[in-house]
Amino acid sequence: MKAIIQRVVKASVTVGEKTTGSIGHGLCVLVGIHRHDTDKEMEYIIRKILNIRLFSDEGDKRWSKSVMDMDYEVICISQFTLESSLKGNKPDFREAMTAESSKTFYEKFLETMKSQYKPEKIQDGEFGAYMQVHIQNDGPVTIPIEMKPQKPVSSQEKSDAACSQGDT
Fold first, then answer.
1. Catalytic annotation on 132?
2. CA–CA separation, 76 and 82 (whole Å)
3. For the region Disordered, what residue ranges are annotated (predicted)?
């Protein structure tokens, strides 16, 4: 799972002429979901988003407060293109979770984040839609974070591992 965290003065998402989310000070987060992501990766990314110290305190001490400390907002945008690689000059999206699975995963991601902060402070775009993301970066501050999923072990690999352990 990957997230691009941007500290913003304001951010909004529109689909066509409709604004689906809009925040003032806070974080704009682009979220990429890998095909092997689990709750473990999700929980790590959420913890980092909510606790990363990107804001100054009252005494202007930099990098000392999180979005939760400041009572700021977070707008999340699902972006499968974060899980791409280049095959020549063409993007390859094989590592991204399928649309159907990632929709469920992303909804759980949002609900989990809301349960760990204030639900009214968490907004998002429109999953799967062609969106326009409008941000006014603050700094600019942009922090990429990633937690690579553990590659699932096939039944053949489990069997091979069990056989090799028996040989010792």
1. no
2. 13
3. 149-168
Best CATH choice for the domain 2-166 from the list 2.40.50.140, 2.102.10.10, 3.50.80.10, 1.20.120.140: 3.50.80.10
| Average pLDDT, consecutive stretches of 10 residues, N- to C-terminus, the chain (168 residues) | 98 95 96 97 98 95 97 97 95 94 97 98 95 96 94 56 47
Residue 23 to residue 124: CA distance in whole angstroms: 10
Q: Which residue among the candidates 81, 104, 132, 136 is catalytic per the annotation?
A: 81
Give the pLDDT of residue 40.
Answer: 97
Q: Does the active-site annotation cover 104?
A: no
Nearest to 34 by CA among 152, 159, 155, 157: 152
Please pick, among 6, 20, 80, 109, the residue that the annotation labels catalytic. Answer: 80
Active-site residue, selected from the candidate residues 79, 105, 109, 123:
79
pTM: 0.87
pLDDT for 168 = 43
Tokens 């974070």, residue located: 145
Q: What is the torsion angle, in degrees rounded to the nearest 10, for the CA atoms of residue 88, residue 145, residue 134 and residue 82?
A: 30
